[in-house]
Fold this protein.
Amino acid sequence: MVFFTCNVCGESVKKPAVEKHYQTRCRNSEKNVSCMDCLKDFYGEEYVAHTKCISEAQKYASQSQGFVVKESRNKNAQKQEGWMDIIRAILDSSEYNLTPALRSAFQKLQSVDNVPRKKAKFENFVGNCMRLPRQQATQVWDILEKELNKMKEAKQAELARIKAEKVAAIQQQQQQDKEAEEAPPKKKSKVEEEPKTEEEPTNGTSSDFDWSAQLTKIVGKQADGIFLEKLRKKLLKKYTKHLSVEDLSEKQAKKFQKRFDKQLKLTEALQVDGDLVKVAS
């Protein structure tokens, strides 16, 4: 529950009671409150959108000493915040053509941070706490349920799209690997060339070592991604084998590191998240 301090009279007020406070004690004053946790000032109806604030641990954590508070994984709080997002989305949407009475009901709900998410409890809550008639409470619930289902469908469609893109990328890579394995070996030149210890560029752009394909192939085998250092070691092994040497020279090692960093950034099928490399979503 968010608490505010009235900047007119100094009284502490719970969020749901702010409206009543300015209708009674400070009725001749403009709404002007400060959050008791983050100390931020709110004017007019700005306080309505302030549904969640910092914790005590976050408030007093010493950033200068390197102490960082871990965010609490409160699933119930996350679900409640999602519920409030639905209420705000309905108010911002022109799809529902809300009557003044229904709009007023949703605006009141927006200022409450413990709205029930089950139909029976919701109807009892708005009937007892907000004095809404049963019929109007049912109308409000029906709109909430419609918007919730719409958001669920949109999320499922987005997840399906991401999954299809990942599957297509993996299949394409597998097909490329298969074609590379089945390709006939190149005929040896009549003139025996000297063995190469370093890759030589073709047309000044890139060598026959396919950096992007090799990176994607290694990462694609790891469902949850692969650590950057482990990916570097695996690719180094393939690169060394490609050059037909046991160990890289100092010059080759520097060249490998430089190309590794560059090609990892250029490979659109992958994304780097800190020390973890995953298939791009």
